[in-house]
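Illustration: Monooxygenase.
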Amino acid sequence: MKFGINLFPTTGPADKSAVAHFDDALRLAVLAEELGFHHVKTVEHYFFDYGGYSPDPVTFLAAAAARTRRIRLITGAVIPAFTHPVKLAGQLAMLDNLSHGRLDVGFARGFLPDEFAAFEIPMDESRERFEEGVEACERLWSDEDVVFRGRFHTFGPVTLLPRPAQRPRPKVLVAASITPESCEAAGRAGRGLMLVPSINKPERTREMIDLYWSARAEAGHDPAGGEIHLSYSSYLHEDGATARERGRGYSAYTNSKMVEAVSAWAHTRSGDYDGYQRIVAKVNSANFDKQVDEGKALVGSPEQVRAQVRQIREWYGDCTVSLQVISGNMPYEESVRTMRLFAQEVMPGFTAPEFTAPESATGGTAAAEAAGAEAPAGDAVLTG
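Result:
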């Protein structure tokens, strides 16, 4: 397994200045490398305390690249609907060179109505814009004299400069939430997959992962080239009860920020986002202790979190786990405690040299067993 940190901000000017936030986040990125974490990841969001301090993950990761030498840098994720693909591909290729080839690119459709309204982009176009944007970026990175004819963008022949440091291109990951077809599409295309397990029951998450591995195998892609990224809200303390108590407070704070960000779903409908009109109720009904008990968050003493990670590996195989270590405006010192305890007392037992896929990806029956899995839980919380 691989482990990294996800710097998803849930804070705003009333809590902490942007200068202070970025100073702390960059210190955490440097610490992550010192502690042996695999990656640092951040998101693209606008306007709200929920993610709004990160409108451009490329800018932040460029600053992190200048302060580190080994750790992977991951966009988790950029939203191609909001940027012309020539511009986006160029920004990311530049970051790949600045980091000496340490970039993995995560793409997402986005899901906040106020963001789409500000960019004057209909939400019903999000899926097509996502697919077109990712394809265009991949071609611009890999090919020369690119001629592109899409529904939303037409250009070429052009040859992107700079070329990515990684050839033919950086690793591409795509974010999915509750739509199995998105997982299958990622597998068929030979891309990696990013999921947030808190928004589905474990059986449903396992089903989506199984679909990804099956589609990847059917398309003839090497299983060892696949990758599953899972993001978990995380809080560790030497005392498990203290971890629960403080983690519960940070979770409640994060939920309060998310309620504001998703409030437009109360009067928004889109065929590309079936079921999202219920998201406000789901956030308001979130049950922190239930999420921890169901393996949807990494919270507790190091011993308790080791058991939680063992369960994740049993469910999903040797995946890549991102610890969300600043959710809920967690103080810098608390983020450091979580990272140090995890790196020193949890992580060493799970890093292995050989790749192993989940059992169902190699002929097991988990996919069939999961076919009757429940719909996403009512206490679901999107955190990435």
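Reading the tokens back as a structure: Residues 14 and 360 are 48 Å apart (CA to CA).
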